[in-house]
Amino acid sequence: MSAGCIGGLYEACVGVPDLAQSVAFFESFGCRAGPIGELDAAAARALYGVDTALRSVRMLHQQADHGLVRLMQWERPLND
Known about the structure:
This protein is an alpha+beta fold. The protein has helices at 19-27, 41-48; strands at residues 12-15, 31-39, 54-61, 69-74.
């Protein structure tokens, strides 16, 4: 790997049925909610190829400057 390359896992995305409940669950392990974002169906389709709106939150831990877990609640999930 050259000096200008970045490698490794940046964050794991987890689809959840209830964003608030899932945030509370992760907070019980010492995480805290970070930036929250929303995409309408058109933007989610362009970015993820899924034609449904999305709300997501990056869970932070201790003094990390980036999230390890992103919780994603889709308006119309594709599966259970």
